[in-house]
């Protein structure tokens, strides 16, 4: 399985709200990534979650296979005529060998059992195909709001999975067996209201597990501090979320069993 039981449960809680409050990935990321692919026939969005990456890939690929271990997430994922959703783990799939031009993992690689996932990714990725994983952690609004947010972060800190450290470390130590590509930096830029921002903070995996353990009201005071710092009558503010990114290409030469 690609996640622990508690991790699966945390993403199953309030799946509709999780889908509602996730930020959108920057178009500049896709503009840079897609030309690297050897073709546009088929892509795999692994651990698709709310389906936002899969739907975007559906605008560029003839077929997108989008998988997730969590049925609740798939049940609220956005539909698209080029996207085919399937419930299955990242590490064991029904896909043919060498069938994908692109494999994407957004906000999820750190949850996988990587010693099992990498052989599966190598198996299904075409020679010359691209693997890309990305995710975000901290957000930046203003010095005042960021300071107020630190109270909330301190409360939920014990509830982050140790697996998140892989994401925070820019995927160093992932054991990726593919040759890495040098990637530019990308940042999510959003214009969010206070309501939208608080919705995002309250639907992180750590926030959900914290409230499940300590009560739904545990973050109320921290959210009030953020509201006061936000100002603007709760109106829109610019929110930036820098991305951590790993991009690699499968060699066009045959991969022998003992190579990795």
From TrEMBL:
Keywords for the protein's UniProt record, in alphabetical order: Methyltransferase, Transferase
One Pfam family hit: Methyltransf_11
CDD domains per the UniProt record, alphabetical: AdoMet_MTases
Domain Methyltransferase type: 45-132
Molecular-function GO terms, alphabetical: S-adenosylmethionine-dependent methyltransferase activity
Source domain of life: Bacteria
One of the GO BP terms on file: methylation
Similarity field: Belongs to the methyltransferase superfamily.
Protein name as annotated: Class I SAM-dependent methyltransferase
Species of origin: Chromobacterium paludis
